[in-house]
Fold these 4 entries.
Entry 1:
Amino acid sequence: MIRAEYAFDLPVPPQEAFALLSDPARDPEWQGACVDARLLNGEPRPGCRYEITFQLIGKRMTFTVEIDEFEPGHRSKFHTLDGPFGYVGTYVYTEHPDGTTGVHWTFDVNPGDYFGIMPKPLVRKVLVNQVKKDSGKLADRLAQAARPQA
């Protein structure tokens, strides 16, 4: 099992951060490795299932995932039902005094032999670096959208 985790800030309130990050259908908007995502049985909520496809480390991977927890503005959690390997992901949202949001992402993955001889620390580093890059771009985009237009 590999645990990858990363904390980042978004310049929006927790409800807005949650609405963006915890809706799988919006993952392609901000996740560079996400090729496609579609909800399978209604709106995001506990029990909602979705199909998501990633292109990462030269591999295209499709998973069926189920949302376990969905507490708007606070926490979301999901796990794989089907795919090349299993994972569990969590986002925890914390409001900062200035109204912006701290997000703590964790990702527990059991890749088995899917990535061949790639060492587990390298898999962890690739995952964290992808989230670091994606969350930074998202924070910049949200900050630009919040600036008054001259």
Entry 2:
Amino acid sequence: MTAPEPGSHPALELDDAVHQKTRLALLTVLDEAGRADFPYLKRVLGLTDGNLGRHLDFLAQQGLIELTKGYEGRRPRTWAAILPKGREALAAEMKLLAALLARFNDRVPGSPPETP
């Protein structure tokens, strides 16, 4: 096996905006649901109001999700919906994770990685 180029490992291509576990979970849930309200996201992911709000704001600022505020009856509600850019970022992240998993699974169990 030849030595890989410095800085060429697929793990280095993971997107920090998406890869953080809470944001990855949010994008995954929104990809499955299309749109979800704040209480649902809070409940399904076990997050606090502040933590959820901070991650939703971050994803919205990155253009990955859209936040909509409105009312359900008399109660104020915030809904989050994944945008096409968010779906693309999630798909790219999952493709990289799949490549990393394939590299891991291709090694013989219990053997150390080859050295250059």
Entry 3:
Amino acid sequence: MKLWLLLSRFENGGLERVQANLAPAFVQSGIDTWLVAGKFMQEAEVMLPANIPILELAANGKLTFILNLYRQLRIHQPDVVMATSNDVSCLVLILRKLFFPKIKVICTQHLSISTPLKQAKGIQKLKYWLILKAMQWLWSKADAIIAVSFALAEDVRKNVRLKSPISTIYNPIVLPNYPTLIEQPIILPWPDKNIPTLIFVGRLAKVKRVDLLLQAFKQVQQKQPCRLLIVGDGTEKTFILDFIRKNDLTDVCHLTGQQNNPLPWIKSADALVLSSDYEGFGNVIVEAMACGTHVIATDCPFGPAEILDHGHYGQLVPVNDSEALAEAMKKAIDKRFYVAKDELQERANTFSLESAVQQYLNVIHTVMDT
């Protein structure tokens, strides 16, 4: 059996890390697995698993994607295509209908449909609306649909108006080598560990609301000593650096840049903060729990509440509320909210690679048998 894990592009993000985790496990189960993307970004090459074939469809630009996808489907003739982006999955379903009736198509949903559509404006809103209309027309024809949380599955069911079943499979985050990765040595930017440290890990993008995090951190820092590590890179980096400079936070805020292994950084902190407007899942929450690090997250759609069991394993605060976020930070620092390290790590193991792979294999084999 030949399986394509198909992405619009392979960049340094959580979705891509999930595919990179799944591919070798599928190979071990006897499936000829390929990572296929419009473009493989140079900064993400370190994430590519060894000995997994890759196929780039649009190295010279997006305009070549459709034609090259058709060509490569004809050349390689995969048995199953598992697509991770909505527009690409719709395209595959159209090509399957016209040219490749034997290919099985699995659509996977990793991000909210409704929230970006509500928040977008202008051309971007039109784009999301058109993709949603295409999904409403085409997704009922998919061989299987997978969402990475139950809330996200319900979002898909409601907005795409699906009557067919949707499988929920949590992202495979905790890997067998996690104990080793967590203990890798790092050099912290401060000479001591006497002051409580908060950490953000992720893309520096608007949806992650690092601006909200900084506002909340500033409020806390004015009342009690604390520090903030920001791990990641992205379009908001300039804004973040300007905010730190203008608010005299240079000595207590540090940007580490992108880290291939953020786990030891997370372990070094007292609490991880996820301040997003929306998430598909929230991989970094599981990473923090695996390190035994406390979690503060916005109760955003869709993922954090399920991962944290609605506030049992970490604090959930309203979206876009810097006051509530600041209060949660204070509770984490003075341990008014506390969860034992072993309890956090036990919860993290719910989101293991082994568990997710078996569930994906069940879907794949079911699709092939129909």
Entry 4:
Amino acid sequence: MRFRSGVLMATVALAIAGVTGAAAEEKRKLRLGTDGTYAPFNYTDPSGELVGFEPDIIADLCPRIGVECEWVIQNFDGIIPALNEGRFDAVMASLSITDERAKAVDFSLPYYAGPTRFIASAETDLGKLQAGKGTTILLGTMSDEDKAVLEEVSTAFANATVGVVRASTHAKFFEETFPGLSVKIYDKGENMLLDLVAGRIDAAVDGAGSTLNFIGEQKKAGKDFVAVGPALKGGALGKGIAFAFRKGEDTDLREKVNEAIRDATTDGTLGSLSVKWIGVDGSISDNVNK
């Protein structure tokens, strides 16, 4: 009987282990919230597949972490509330790190940092703006010369309507830096850019990657749009873009993501993917020391 009991106990133990293992395997699925409308970071191609810089990062990072990843599409302006309601496990939607957002979510290490730009038709007066051309202004540490450039930009945009995306760092930046100027708020970046092409707004504020992608696509269509004014970084625009997790939760998973970001920075993966999709190396070398 002892032998049979031992076999039975071993069988039960193995069965329990199997169930536990299956449950553990099920928990290894990582659901990622994104908006799917922000080329070249994440967007839906004609076949309905989500493509771009961030899906390519996920294709590399998830095997490093040892999880199976799936996307959940969510409008950007509600993406942090949806995360905190549990609709997905993390956000990966070109979400900039800011102090205000950090009160609501925990960020991973940033996987990309690039500037913000103004876009206008090259055929308009705004498209010919020379103020700040070829320069980068760090909003958190502006010199008097930088402030003078932004004043010149503000004057040039005095009679213009500028598009920004709701709940984005670009909207926050525009509100703080150019409070007297006319702004139109959009739920999606693609709708903002469609209105820019149609002439329903005079300019738009967007990230450098999206700006370069948009300018290239419009050039193929025979239309000439340009980035105007200085490139802008820091301050209300944040400290780079990162994954966001629910506050105080999933700390082990967040550290695994951080480790994968460090490794992908060290071996050049993030740099090469950002060059592929955005045209610049936006990887952050300091990540390897954090």
